Amino acid sequence: xxxxxxxxxxxxxxxxxxxxxxxxxxxxxxxxxxxxxxxxxxxxxxxxxxxxxxxxxxxxxxxxxxxxxxxxxxxxxxxxxxxxxxxxxxxxxxxxxxxxxxxxxxxxxxxxxxxxxxxxxxxxxxxxxxxxxxxxxxxxxxxxxxxxxxxxxxxxxxxxxxxxxxxxxxxxxxxxxxxxxxxxxxxxxxxxxxxxxxxxxxxxxxxxxxxxxxxxxxxxxxxxxxxxxxxxxxxxxxxxxxxxxxxxxxxxxxxxxxxxxx
Amino acid sequence: xxxxxxxxxxxxxxxxxxxxxxxxxxxxxxxxxxxxxxxxxxxxxxxxxxxxxxxxxxxxxxxxxxxxxxxxxxxxxxxxxxxxxxxxxxxxxxxxxxxxxxxxxxxxxxxxxxxxxxxxxxxxxxxxxxxxxxxxxxxxxxxxxxxxxxxxxxxxxxxxxxxxxxxxxxxxxxxxxxxxxxxxxxxxxxxxxxxxxxxxxxxxxxxxxxxxxxxxxxxxxxxxxxxxxxxxxxxxxxxxxxxxxxxxxxxxxxxxxxxxxxxxxxxxxxxxxxxxxxxxxxxxxxxxxxxxxxxxxxxxxxxxxxxxxxxxxxxxxxxx
Amino acid sequence: xxxxxxxxxxxxxxxxxxxxxxxxxxxxxxxxxxxxxxxxxxxxxxxxxxxxxxxxxxxxxxxxxxxxxxxxxxxxxxxxxxxxxxxxxxxxxxxxxxxxxxxxxxxxxxxxxxxxxxxxxxxxxxxxxxxxxxxxxxxxxxxxxxxxxxxxxxxxxxxxxxxxxxxxxxxxxxxxxxxxxxxxxxxxxxxxxxxxxxxxxxxxxxxxxxxxxxxxxxxxxxxxxxxxxxxxxxxxxxxxxxxxxxxxxxxxxxxxxx
Lengths: 262, 320, 258
What we know:
The complex is a heterotrimer. In chain A, the strands form three sheets. A five-stranded parallel beta sheet of chain A has the order 3-2-1-4-5, with helices on both faces. Chain A has helices spanning 23-32, 55-58, 68-73, 87-95, 109-122, 126-139, 165-172, 192-197, 206-210, 215-218, 220-225, 237-240, 245-261, and strands at 18-20, 38-42, 63-64, 78-81, 100-102, 148-153, 158-160, 175-177, 187-189, 202-205, 230-233. Chain A contains 13 helices and eleven strands. By secondary structure, chain A is of the alpha/beta class. Chain A is 41% helix and 15% strand. Chain C is an alpha/beta fold. Chain C has nine helices and twelve strands. Chain C has helices at residues 42-49, 72-78, 94-99, 113-125, 141-154, 171-186, 198-204, 222-225, 228-235; strands spanning 4-13, 16-26, 31-35, 57-62, 65-66, 79-82, 159-163, 190-194, 207-212, 215-221, 237-243, 249-256. A six-stranded mixed beta sheet of chain C has the order 6-7-8-3-9-10, with helices on both faces. In chain C, strands 2-1-4-5 form a four-stranded antiparallel beta sheet. In chain C, strands 11-12 form a two-stranded antiparallel ribbon. In chain C, a hairpin with a 5-residue loop joins strand 11 (237-243) and strand 12 (249-256). In chain C, helix 4 packs antiparallel against helix 5. The B-C interface holds B 72, 200, 203-208, 210-211, 213-218, 260-263 and C 47, 50-52, 72-73, 75-76, 79-83, 85, 87-93, 96-97, 100-101, 103-104, 106, 135, 148, 151, 155.
C-alpha cells in the first residue's frame, strides 16, 4: 500500500493552494489570501451561528467538514487548522503526505498578530500579513485612564480568565478582568452566587447579545443585578477567534467603556 | 453454514462495496484505478475504514451473542461487563493528558483500560460462577469508570479539550487508517475466536448451571473465556472507534428467531449481522446531509431507542 | 458393571452440615429410590454422587475411583444428571433440547448418525416424538418434564441420576415414564431417583435408601425396607401399608407422630 508523495512537489509553489478547516483561520485568509488560492473553507464558516466572516463571502467557496477524506480530494498544497483536530485526521493527513499546519488559539493580541503574519507568510503574501497585523495592533493600543472592573459572561456562565485572549482585550480596552478576583482559572464557570456577592462594574453578556440565553442568564438574581450594574451585550463572535475579529471586538469594548465613563 | 449466514454474508459484501464508494466525496467505480488521485481515498481511507467497520461490527455482534448466552438473558449487552467503559476511560486519559498526539498511544491506553477492567472483573467476580455477583461486578466497574470519565471531562483545562473528549466518546470511524486496522483487527479476531469456542458450553447452560456442569462444562474456564474474548473484541473496538452501543444488543436479538434460539447458533449470524449493520450505519453517517459526519455511536443510539420501543410493544402483546 | 457408592460421605453447605458419613451402595441394572423428608439431604446426596458437589469428608465412588477424579467429559458420558429445576432458558425446540444430551459425546464435527439415533430413541421412549419441532415455551409442565428426561436418556449414560423426574406428571404419564425408567435399568444402566411420592417409590424402586437429617435410617430392597416402622421413623409419621388386589404395594400416611 505504498502511496507516492503525490501532493507535495519539489518546492511549495509561491501561492499555494489552501484548504482551511477552521473558521477563525478562514477569517484571516479572507484578508490575506487570493480568492483563487482558497480551495475550501470550513463548513462552519457557512453556518450563520458559527461564522466569523460574512455569509455571502463564505458561500462563494467550497466547504469541507474537516475530514481527511474531503481534504485529500481537493489536492491542497497546504492545510491550515486550529489547535484541536481529531487525532485520526491528523494522522491520516500525515500519512498521505499532506502538509498540515496547526495554529493554536492565541493567548493574547501579540500572539494573534504574530499568527496572522505567520499564516500570510505561509501562503505567499507576507506583506498582507504585516499590514493586517499592524491594523490589529493599532486597534488594540492600550487605553489610558482608570481601569473599570468588568466580566465577560459567556454561554452557560463560562468566563474567560487570565491568560486568554478576551482577558487581554479587556485590559487593553481599559477594563480590569474581575475573574481573578473570584479565583477563576483560564476558562471557568462562575457560580451566580459569587457574581451577585461581588459584582463587577459592567457585565459583558453574550446572552444579552443573542437576545435569549440559558437559565443562568435569565436567572432573576441576575436580572435584579442589572439594576445595580451595567449589562452590555457582547456577541460571542467577538471572542471566538483572534485575527481580524480583534478589531471589531476592541471597537465594541471601547464603545462600552465610553458609555460608562460618560 | 446455514442459509441465514449465506444471506448475511452476501449482505456484508454488498455493504462493503457501498462503503468503499460512498461518502461526502462520492468515488465512482471508474476512479478506482491507480492513476486517478481519488484512488488514494479508496486505498488509504475508505478501505481501512470499511475493514474496521466490518471487524468492529462482527466483534460487537459476537460479544453480544456470547454475553446473552452466558447470562441467559436476551437483554444483555457487552457494555454490561464494564470493559467498554474501562477502555473508554483509558482513551479519555490519553486525550486529557494530551498524549493522543502519537497515533498509537490512544489505542494503547484504551487497551490498557480494557485489560485492567477485565482483570478487576475476574478478581471481583471470583471463583464462583455466580451470575448475580458477575453482573454486579460489571455494573460497579461501569459506574466507577464512567464517573472517572465524567471527572476528566469536568476537569478539562479548556472547553476545547472537553469538547474533544466528548466528541471522541460518541464514537466514529472517520479517517481511520491502516495503523488502526493493524492494532484492532488481530485483537478482535482473537476475541471472536475465543468466543466461538464457547458455543457448546453456552448451549449446555440453556439447562441451567447444574445441568451444564453435569454435562462437563467448567464454569470457571467458561467465565474466563467469555471475559477474555469480550475484553479483546470490545476493548479493541473501543480503542479504534470510541463507544458504539446497541450492536451487541440488537443484532443477536434480531437473528435469534431465524437462527434457532440455541446460543451457539446465534454466534456466526451475529458476527455477520453486526458487520452488516455497522458498515451500513457507517455509510449512512457519511451520506447524511448534516454539517459534519454524524457520530457513529450517536447513530447507533438513535437506532437503539426505537428498537427498544418495538421490543416493549411486542413483549406487551405476548404477555397480554 | 461398576458400582456407584457413597463411602462415609459428609457434606457441609453454607456452613450447615447436610450429610453425615453416609454409606450407601447402588447397583447397576436396578432402580434405587432416595426417600426422606424435606431437608434430609436427598438432593445433596444425589449431587455428590454425580460429582457436582465436593464432599467435606468421605467420597463418592464410581467403580474403583473417586467420581470427582474422573475427567469432566468422561464423567458427563457415564453419569446423566437430571436436576430438579426444570430450567430451559431459550425457546429451543424439543429436538434441539434432547440433542443437548449428546454434548458429552460430540466431537469436533457436527452431529453423527449415532447422535441422531440416540435422540430419536429418547424421544420415542418418552412419548415426545410428535413434539420434536415444538418450542419449549409451548409445552405443558408434564411435556417439559418428559422432554428434559429425554435429554438425559439421549446421552445413554451408565448411570441415570434424577431429582424428582416425575413430580409434575399426571398419573398416566407417571406410569409411562416410570416404565421407561425401569426399562433403562433393565437394559443395564443404574438408576437412582429422588422421589417424594411413597407409592411411586414402592412401584418403581428395586432398592430404597431412607434418609433423615443427613443420615441413613435404612437401606435395602424395597420389599423389605419399606415397612411401616421404618417409613414412619424416617418421616415422623404413622403409616399403613398393604398390597392391592393386583399385587401392588401401597403406603398411606395416617397421622404425624411428633
